[in-house]
TrEMBL record:
This is Deoxyribose-phosphate aldolase. Keywords: Lyase, Schiff base. The keyword Lyase applies. Pathway: Carbohydrate degradation; 2-deoxy-D-ribose 1-phosphate degradation; D-glyceraldehyde 3-phosphate and acetaldehyde from 2-deoxy-alpha-D-ribose 1-phosphate: step 2/2. Its EC number is 4.1.2.4. PANTHER family: DEOXYRIBOSE-PHOSPHATE ALDOLASE. SMART domains: DeoC. Belongs to the DeoC/FbaB aldolase family. DeoC type 2 subfamily. The lineage of its organism: Bacteria, Bacillati, Actinomycetota, Actinomycetes, Kitasatosporales. It is an enzyme of class 4 (lyase). CDD domains: DeoC. GO terms for molecular function: deoxyribose-phosphate aldolase activity. It catalyses: 2-deoxy-D-ribose 5-phosphate = D-glyceraldehyde 3-phosphate + acetaldehyde.
Length: 313
């Protein structure tokens, strides 16, 4: 696989040599997996698993330290009435809020993720993107969610995108030799075709992505079952070819427990149980957690408390 990235021409030949995506087959399989039902005991397990996979997120211009600290408190203890409720996987914030989140989460085991590289549009010069990343890592970010240059990718400038991902990966390094994990965001809703999603998945993994992520949550089309299934198949095929395992993060538009369980079924059926951990699969979500908590309480008590049971974030 190393020879694939030796030159722009080699990378282009490889990416365009990937099998074309059967859109009808992909959408049909995603729809079929979405009809699977699970029993009550399995549903309880799936709800707890989904909670433990959430990157609880606030990415608004009106974010304040107080809001971030409140979100961190919710991530540590999602349901104050039930201490058996799992913690979330990470709190995801803008780089200037990393220090606040890191202090609030100290000792919790929850990761701090930060969007970088001129999120969400990615329209900035590479030195600016690298500085953005380095600042977040220096502030204590455990994970960096970067956005690719969609304009470059759609123009066929694959090597530019590849080298940018590699450069951001290098900027994730810490002085002690460790590094923040890198999640590469595609913005699938802007990539136009399934073939492009497959190509950018392979390109990003070849460049060193630790996770591949569907979307920013800031456009009309974000995570969908078909585009996430396609990415799951890509990481499966990449591991078969290289031995390297990469995680997947659908983000944006996943709001209900029913939706989350459909995605967990896809992961299990496509990749197997070894990917069913927060180390290899995440949900980029904010409102999803509230529905999971309400459904969890209903399973526990037999009563549905409604939206007043959870906090408004």
């Amino acid at each position: 696989m190393a020879d694939v990235t030796a030159s722009d021409a080699a990378l282009r030949r490889f990416l365009h040599g990937l099998p074309g995506v059967d859109a009808v087959g992909l959408e049909g399989r995603a729809a079929t997996l979405g009809t699977r039902s699970i029993k009550t005991t399995a549903k309880a397990y799936a709800i707890d698993l989904a909670i433990s996979m959430i990157d609880l997120t606030t990415l608004e211009g009106a974010d304040t330290p107080g809001k971030v600290r409140a979100l961190c408190a919710k991530g540590v203890n999602p349901d104050p009435t039930d201490r058996t409720t799992p913690k979330v996987a990470a709190i995801c914030v803008y780089p200037d809020m990393v220090k606040t989140a890191k202090e609030a989460l100290d000792g919790s085991g929850i990761h701090v993720a930060s969007v970088a590289t001129a999120f969400p549009a990615g329209r900035a010069a590479l030195p600016v993107k690298l500085a953005d990343t380095a600042d977040a890592v220096a502030a204590g970010a455990d994970e960096i969610d970067m956005v690719i240059d969609r304009g470059a990718f759609l123009s066929g400038r694959y090597m530019q995108v590849f080298e940018e991902i590699k450069a951001v990966k290098a900027a994730c390094a810490r002085p002690d030799g460790s590094a923040a994990h890198l999640k590469v965001i595609f913005e699938n809703g802007e990539l136009a075709t399934y073939d492009n999603i497959r190509r950018v998945s392979w390109l990003s993994m070849l460049a060193g992505a630790d996770f591949i992520k569907t979307s920013t949550g800031k456009v009309a089309v974000n995570a969908t079952p078909p585009n996430t299934l396609l990415m799951l198949e890509a990481v499966r095929d990449f591991r078969d070819a290289t031995g390297v395992q990469v995680g997947v993060k659908p983000a944006g538009g996943i709001r209900t427990t029913k939706d989350a369980i459909k995605y967990l079924v896809m992961v299990n059926e496509t990749l197997g149980e070894q990917w069913l951990t927060p180390d290899w699969f995440r949900f980029g979500a904010s409102s999803l957690l509230n529905d999971l908590l309400m459904q969890r309480q209903k399973l526990s008590t037999g009563r549905y408390s409604g939206p007043d049971y959870v906090t408004v974030d």
